[in-house]
Amino acid sequence: MPESRPPVPVAARIREAILAGEFVPNQRLIEADLSDRFGAGRAAVRAALLELANEGLIERVQNRGARVRAVSLAEAIEITEVRMVLEGLCAAKAAERATDADIAGLREIGAGMRDAVASGDVFGYSDLNQRLHARVREISGHGTASDVLERLRAQNVRHRFRLALQPGRPQTSLPEHLAIIEAIAARDPAEAERAARAHLASVLEALPQVLPDESR
Fold this sequence. Notes:
The chain is 72% helix and 5% strand. It is mainly alpha-helical.
C-alpha cells in the first residue's frame, strides 16, 4: 500500500496561487472562498493568512479583511538589491559544492533557455529562468538564504511577469544566466558570485522601464 503524503499546508497553497498569478495585487482574499477552494476550515485559513501577512505577501485591511499586497517600484528595487547579495552568495556556494550531475542539470536548463529564446517562447523562458535560480539555491545548500529568497520571490511575482514580457528582455538575460551556469561549472565561486550580481544589476536597470512608480 503506497504511503500517504501529509497534506500541503494552506499557507503554502495560497502562496503558490499568488506566485502563479491566480490571485493578483490588491485582490481581496475572502476566508469563506479560500476555505471552499482549499478544503480547509476557517481557522486554518485565518492562521494561513496571518502567516502570509507576517511574510509581507498579503496585508490586513481594517474592516475589509485581507488582500494581496501590491509592491511598489521602490520596494521592488529594494527587494532586487537584497536578492543581488543573496543570489551572489548562493551562486558562490553552488560553485563550491556542485557535482558533475548538478552541472549537467544546470547546462540542460541553459540549453532549454536557449531554445526558448530562439523560438520566442517567453513564458517557457520565464519558467526555465525560475527553475535555474531555484536549482542554484538548492545546490548552494544555504538554507537561510534560500528561505529569504523564496519570500522575496513571492512578493515580486507580478514584477517578474512584467519583466518577462518586456521586448528583448530574454535576449538580454540569456547570456547573463549562461554566465552563471558556466562559472558554477568551472567551480569558480568568485566568478559565479560576480555573474549572479551582474544579472541582478541588469534587472535593477530594467525595473523602472517596465513598472510604474506606485509610490507617487
